[in-house]
Amino acid sequence: MPRRVRAAAGFAYALRTIALHYTRARLFWAIAPQHQRCGYATEAARAMIDHAFGQLRIKRLIATTEYTNLASQAVMAKVGMRVERNPLSTPPWLEIVGVIEHPSL
């Protein structure tokens, strides 16, 4: 039986510039420490990718994190993002960039 959680485990969202022709979006997720390593971020990222590619027809999705956030880097890799290290360490939230392209657009 699944464990019941009475508080939010975290959040995830996709952000796209409000323009019909804009074909990129950014993915964000954050999971509370007590709920990490349960697959929630990976599940949320996969759902956002499916929705962005299937319903919104987004061509490219981007996620970013810091060098030290190995968990987010692992999520990026698990969902099929190309994960690249930015040689510039400023700003810290752009140290690691994950990118995934729509397979058929």
Reading side by side through the largest sheet, how are the strands ordered?
1-2-3-5-4
Unreliable spans = none
Order of helices and strands: EEHEHEE
What is the C-alpha radius of gyration, as a whole number of Å? 14 Å
End-to-end separation: 40 Å
Given the helix and strand composition, which structural class is it?
Answer: alpha+beta
Instruction: Kindly state the number of beta strands.
Output: 5
CATH class: Alpha Beta
| Largest sheet geometry | 5 strands, mixed
Question: Layout of helices and strands, plus pairs?
Answer:
Layout lengths: L9 E6 L8 E8 L8 H15 L5 E6 L4 H9 L3 E4 L10 E6 L4
Parallel strand pairs: 2-3
Antiparallel strand pairs: 1-2, 3-5, 4-5
